[in-house]
Amino acid sequence: MTAAILDWAVFAAQILLTAAMACAAFRILRGPRAQDRVLGMDTLYVNATMLILTFGIRTGSQFYFEAALIIAMLGFVSTAASAKFLMRGEVIE
């Protein structure tokens, strides 16, 4: 019974994460400011990381967890670089 509950919970999480990714993509495309687009991109990569983790839970493969870790690291660096560029106009001082 607990395996069935876990399967349903993972399935529901995947649907909700997909909807959240659609909302973030709308914010990226719609704007209106660059800060809104950076925030949408940050939200999109966090949701993508969580979606990959749910795939890993569903399949039981360790590959998905490693991919999610790499995406999280790259997403953090890109968000920090984008924020610094928007504040100062340059990434590297």
Automatic annotation (TrEMBL):
GO terms for cellular component: plasma membrane. It comes from the Bacteria. GO terms for molecular function: sodium:proton antiporter activity. The chain crosses the membrane at residues 6-26, 38-57, 63-87. Its main location: membrane. Keywords: Cell membrane, Membrane, Transmembrane, Transmembrane helix, Transport. The keyword Secreted does not apply. InterPro entries: MrpF/PhaF-like (IPR007208). This is K+/H+ antiporter subunit F. It comes from Enterovirga aerilata.
